[in-house]
Amino acid sequence: MSAYSIGVDLGGTNLRVAAVDEQGTIVARVSEPAVFDSGPERVVVDICKVIRSIRERNGMEELHGVGIGVPGFIDMESGVVIGSANLPGFEGFPVRDQIQKNLGTRIILENDANAAALGEMWMGAGRNVKDLILLTLGTGIGGGIVFNGKILHGFRGMAGEFGHMTVFPDGNPCGCGNYGCLEKHASATAIAAMGRMMHFGRDTTSAKVFDLAVQGNPRAKMVFEAMGRALGIALASLINIFNFPLYLISGGPLPAWDFFAPAMMIEVKKRAFTFERTGAKIEKALLGADAGLYGAAYLPFQQST
Amino acid sequence: MSAYSIGVDLGGTNLRVAAVDEQGTIVARVSEPAVFDSGPERVVVDICKVIRSIRERNGMEELHGVGIGVPGFIDMESGVVIGSANLPGFEGFPVRDQIQKNLGTRIILENDANAAALGEMWMGAGRNVKDLILLTLGTGIGGGIVFNGKILHGFRGMAGEFGHMTVFPDGNPCGCGNYGCLEKHASATAIAAMGRMMHFGRDTTSAKVFDLAVQGNPRAKMVFEAMGRALGIALASLINIFNFPLYLISGGPLPAWDFFAPAMMIEVKKRAFTFERTGAKIEKALLGADAGLYGAAYLPFQQST
Q: Which 3 state secondary structure label does DSSP give A107?
C-alpha cells in the first residue's frame, strides 16, 4: 500500500484509531472503549496496542507518523498534557514520549478540537481554504483556528477557547469564573438547560429539544433562536477579528441548524460589517466525529512536507 | 550609511516619513501637512517628493524599500485601498503602483494599525515576542494582530477590527450597524461622550475627562472605570481566543492607564481563565504615534529576509 499515517482520537468514552493515506482515504479503522480507571499508563498501552495491530496489517515502512488528538491543553514542545477536565490523571504525564518510546515512530500530540479544525480543512468543509475557524458545540464549546494551513496554538497551547468568549457580560455564570460565556448560552448543555426552563422535564437533552422543535413546539423553537443569537454574537466578533473566509459549526446540535441558523445570521449581519462585504461563509462542518481523526492523521503528513 | 528603509505614515492630518536603518534607528524624518483636497494623485506626488528628498540625502543604493501605512482597508495583492473613512477619493485608487512607478523602488502598502502593531513588535513593547495584539484607542478603536512575527491580514485585509467586537449586545448603537461595539464604550470618543453625560460640558474631550480624574473628580473616575470594564471584556475574549503572550494598548487615552487599568484587569481576570494561568501580559504600547512609522519601515526588511 501507499504511504499512510495513523490518526488517534482519544475521547472521554472511546479510543478511535484510523490509518489514512495521503489522499485522505481511511484504509483501516479501530474503535474501542477508552479505559481511564487504571491511569494514563494503561491508556498509553491500549493506544500502542491498537496502533501496532494496524501497522502489522498495513506495513511498517510506509508509516509517516502518528497524530493523537486528546481533549486537553498540551505543551507542544514537550508533548505533555498540561490540563484536562476529561483525562483524569493525565496532567503532567508525558503522553507523547511514552508512546514514542513504545512504538519507535514519530508521535504528534494535539488538542482534539484543533485536530478537528485541521481535519475539516484537509478533507471536510474547508478543503478550498487555508484559513478557517471551527466551533464545536458539545458539553461545552471548543474550537480550533487554522491559519495558513496550520493550527494556531497560542503560546501555551490554549488558543481557540471560543466557548469562553463573553457574549452576555451579565449572563449565566460559568465554571471558568466568568459570566455569559458563549458555552453557557449555545452549547448542547445550554440548549438542554434552556429546555428545562421551558418545562420540557428533568431529563431534557438538546436532542429532545430538537425533536420538540421538529414537532412544531414554539418554546423549543425559541430555545434554538436564543442559542442562535448567542452564537451569532460570538461569530460576529470572530469575523471582525479574523476576517477569515470560513467559519464552521460542528457538534451534536448541528441537525438543528434550520432552527438556530436564521437567528444566528441576523446577529452576524447586524454585528459584523465585514461579513457580507467580504463574502465570508458560515457553514456546517462535514466530517462529524471523524474530523479529529482526519486532522490527527494529517499532522504527520504536514510536518514531513 | 548602512542599509535603510523608508516608513511612511499617511494620517488624516499629517504625512510623516522616516528613514530607518536595520537596527531600528531613525536616521532622518520629515513631517508635513497631508493635503487631500486635490485628490489622491496629489497625495502620491507629495509622498514621492518627500521620499525622494530623503533618498537624495541618504543615498539610493542601500534603500531596501518603502513601507506605507494608510488608514484604510487594503487589497494586499493589488496594493489598492478598498475602503477608508479617512482617505477621501482613495477607494479603488492604485496607491502602491502609482508610487512604485514614480519612484522605481519596491513599495509595500499596509493598514496603519497593522503597521503600528508590527512596529511595536520590532522596536517597542513587543520586542521579546513574535505574537501580539495591539489595540489603538482613538476616534474609534483599531488594531493589529502579529502572529509568528508577521501581520495577520485576513483574506480581504480586514482582520483586527477589535473596535467592532460586541461587548454589550444591547449597548450603544454604532455606525457599523451593530450595538455595543467596543469602540462605542472604550474609544477616546466614547470617553468624551460619557464625560458629556456626566455634565462636563459640550466641549468635553477624553483629555478633559482625564484632567478631571487627575483632579480627583469622582464622575471622571467612573467614566474611566466604565471604559476599563468594556476594554477588559473585549481583552478577555481576545485572550481566550488567541492565547498570545502580549496584548498592547495605545492611543490618546493611554495616560489615563492608572484610572482605567484596574477595572480592566478585574474583568480580564474574571473572564479569561487562561490569563493568569499562562502569564500573558497586558501592557502599554511604547512607541506612540511612531509605531506606525517603525512598522512601515520594517516591512521592506521583513520581506527581503
A: strand
The C-alpha torsion from B159 through B164 and B168 to B171, rounded to 10°, is -170
Whole-complex ipTM: 0.94
C-alpha cell at B249: 494598548
Task: DSSP letter for A256, please.
Answer: G
- Residue A83 CA to residue A58 CA, distance in Å, equals 34
C-alpha cell at B251: 492611543
Mutation pick from B82, B271, B275, B278 vs chain A, by most beta carbons of A within 10 Å, is: B271
- State the DSSP H helix or E strand holding residue A283, giving kind and residue range, or none if neither: strand A281-284
Give all domains of chain B, ordered by start, each with its CATH number. Answer: 4-117+290-304 (3.30.420.40), 129-285 (3.30.420.40)
* Residue A159 near chain B (CB below 8 Å): yes
* Pair B172, B163: CB distance under 8 Å: no
Interface test with B, best of A134, A147, A165, A267 (most B CBs within 10 A): A165
Residue among A17, A30, A10, A45 at smallest CA distance from A297: A17
Per-residue pLDDT of chain B (305 residues; tens, 9 = 90+): 578 999 999 988 899 999 999 999 999 999 999 988 888 999 999 999 999 999 988 776 688 999 999 999 999 999 999 988 778 888 999 999 999 999 989 999 999 999 999 999 999 999 999 999 999 999 999 999 999 999 999 999 999 999 999 999 999 999 999 999 999 999 999 999 999 999 999 999 999 999 999 999 999 999 999 999 999 999 999 999 999 999 999 999 999 999 999 999 999 999 999 898 889 999 999 999 999 999 999 999 998 75
Please count the residues of chain A: 305
Closest CA to B233 of B165, B280, B171, B184: B165
CA distance B285 to B281: 12
Distance between B189 CA and the closest CA of chain A, angstroms: 20
CA distance B66 to B300: 6
Closest alpha carbon to B295 in B250, B244, B254: B250
- SS3 for A151-216 is ECCCCCCCCCCHHHCECCCCCCECCCCCECECHHHHCHHHHHHHHHHCCCCCCCCHHHHHHHHHCC
Residues on chain A touching B183 (C-beta within 8 angstroms):
none
Q: Are A148 and A133 in contact (CB under 8 A)?
A: no
> Do A178 and B273 count as a contact with CB atoms less than 8 A apart?
yes
- Find chain A residues with C-beta within 8 A of B244's C-beta: 154-155
Residues of B in contact with A237 (CB under 8 A): 164-166, 237
Give the Å distances, CA to CA, from B270 to A153, A175, B197, B260. 22, 11, 28, 16
